[in-house]
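Quiz preparation item.
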């Protein structure tokens, strides 16, 4: 069967040869028309496709047969959360195929961790082709194994305690400015998801690049970046023809990277003159200057390289943090007793200066606010899964070998909603992260940021950023969530959002109670 299958594959690569195969060898000459030959070869191709699928599928739960040619492509265009849930519930491992890609989905904590931790020996992150085009093939994010490890080590300096201390007040300034804009809407109710995105984008640009980028350019970058997000589909047209989504995204990337390079040059000049570091670029360049001065052998990062790294940070952070911030505002409005405890904590640690700007020292004192952020991320993990692929045939457990080249997907949601680990897993309970709770005793289940060689580099910064936003918001504003039947329904677009876009209204702190 396998020999026949491989013979057929070779033949099916050329229609002409297929016709001659059937005309010339299988049946006597002159007895079969070209049309009939095409029909027979199509039928054999379809049969081969089913053989290909079922021989990989074996006993795994999944569609019994492959939809000819496209597999479950149509379902993957409009994924639903309920669809994912039923897939995860179907077995510890399950499968589908999209076009000619065989996909294995792991739904337990143990198997998901195994996939992530087995990079690069048996697995590696699976990259959609458009990503390589948009982020450029030379981007560090596509490195594997030792090269990846070494490069990544050089970036650790950007997320030290000292570096976070530089970023906290920069973020705080941006949050307060955006809150003032929301308050200027005078309590108008509207979906806030897009406004949360704008806040995140500006915070990222200012934290990463400081004020080397003028306001108008920052706005242009924010708009251009929408092109990048739009091109992040699982399936794109393979060639970046003019005016396709990927083509627009590549043009946007060129513009963004050029702006970043300009900022790097300015930072180099300022830091060489002994300036105080005000953003990630400054921290990075200062550390290179210091290491050079100390005579250490260091990795010199070129301007474009730095710009591309910052681009990956934008890429990795924008959607995930926007998702987390959206759910955080919604969950806090729906659980006023939790918001009150955040406020109480802020009063305790800020004293008389309630609306003072953020600092890392303040962040470190926000024990309860941290618990809240951990719980938001557990309940509504922005990233539900990450696609990897196998680099060889790999016995993932005792009874299944994932074939080489298959996409293998570790999922995070089931581990984060495991009722044996998190009591009442679907309830929002920040106390489970407190001294009395036991969520901390199960670090293996907290897969929000992945695990292994590619785990999230920005984890600590992301947590600080979300904490900073809700802390600062709690002292400046009151907000209401206008609930709709879609508020608790999850929509999936790379990350997860409430289906109604989180309809909210904001008022200055104290005015809602005062007016009711
Ligand atoms: C709530 C916000 C965030 C979430 C939920 C999140 C989640 C993740 C996840 C699940 C991964 C893949 C891990 C793996 O494959 O094992 C990842 C990778 C990554 N994240 Fe985040 N992330 C967030 C924010 C950020 C931020 C703010 C930054 C940068 C400032 C960042 C930078 C990165 C980078 C560079 C990688 C790739 C690391 C590598 O391949 O070595 N992330 N993140």
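Solution:
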């Amino acid at each position: 069967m396998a020999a026949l299958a491989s013979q057929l594959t070779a033949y099916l690569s050329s229609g002409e040869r297929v016709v001659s195969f059937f005309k010339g060898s299988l049946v006597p000459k002159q007895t079969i028309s070209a049309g009939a030959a095409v029909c027979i070869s199509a039928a054999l191709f379809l049969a081969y496709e089913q053989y290909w699928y079922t021989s990989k599928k074996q006993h795994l739960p999944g569609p019994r047969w492959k939809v000819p040619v496209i597999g479950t492509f149509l379902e993957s265009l409009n994924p639903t959360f309920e669809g994912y849930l039923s897939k995860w519930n179907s077995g510890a491992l399950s499968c589908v195929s999209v076009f000619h890609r065989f996909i294995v989905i792991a739904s337990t904590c143990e198997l998901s961790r195994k996939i992530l931790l087995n990079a690069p020996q048996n697995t590696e992150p699976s990259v959609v082709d458009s990503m390589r085009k948009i982020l450029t093939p030379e981007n560090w994010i596509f490195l594997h194994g030792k090269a990846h490890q070494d490069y990544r080590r050089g970036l650790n300096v950007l997320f030290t305690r000292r570096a976070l201390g530089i970023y906290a007040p920069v973020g705080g300034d941006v949050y307060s400015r955006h809150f003032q804009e929301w308050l200027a809407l005078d309590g108008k109710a509207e979906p806030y998801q897009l406004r949360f995105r704008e806040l995140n984008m500006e915070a990222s640009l200012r934290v990463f690049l400081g004020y080397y980028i003028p306001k108008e350019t920052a706005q242009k970058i924010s708009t251009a970046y929408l092109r990048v997000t739009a091109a992040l589909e699982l399936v794109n047209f393979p060639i970046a023809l003019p005016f396709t989504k990927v083509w627009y995204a590549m043009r946007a990337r060129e513009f963004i990277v050029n702006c970043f390079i300009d900022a790097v040059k300015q930072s180099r000049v300022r830091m060489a003159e002994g300036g105080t570091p005000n953003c990630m670029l400054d921290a990075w360049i200062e550390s290179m200057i210091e290491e050079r001065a100390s005579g250490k052998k260091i990795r010199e990062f070129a301007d474009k390289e730095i710009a591309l790294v910052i681009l990956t940070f934008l890429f990795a952070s924008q959607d995930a943090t926007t998702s987390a911030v959206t759910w955080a505002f919604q969950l806090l409005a729906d659980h006023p007793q939790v918001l009150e405890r955040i406020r109480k904590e802020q009063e305790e640690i800020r004293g008389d200066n309630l609306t003072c700007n953020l600092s890392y020292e303040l962040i470190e004192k926000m024990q309860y606010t941290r618990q809240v952020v951990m719980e938001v991320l557990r309940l509504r993990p922005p990233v539900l899964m990450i696609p990897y692929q196998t680099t060889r045939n790999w016995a993932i457990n005792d009874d299944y070998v994932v074939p080489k080249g298959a996409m293998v997907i570790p999922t995070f949601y089931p581990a984060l909603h495991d009722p044996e680990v998190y009591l009442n897993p679907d309830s929002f309970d920040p106390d489970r992260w407190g001294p009395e709770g036991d969520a901390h005793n199960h670090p293996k289940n907290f897969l929000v940021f992945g695990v292994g060689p590619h785990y999230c580099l920005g984890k600590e910064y992301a947590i600080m950023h979300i904490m900073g936003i809700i802390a600062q918001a709690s002292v400046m504003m009151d907000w209401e969530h206008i609930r709709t039947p879609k508020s608790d329904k999850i929509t999936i677009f790379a990350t997860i959002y409430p289906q109604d876009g989180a309809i909210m209204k904001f008022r200055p702190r104290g005015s809602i109670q005062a007016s009711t």
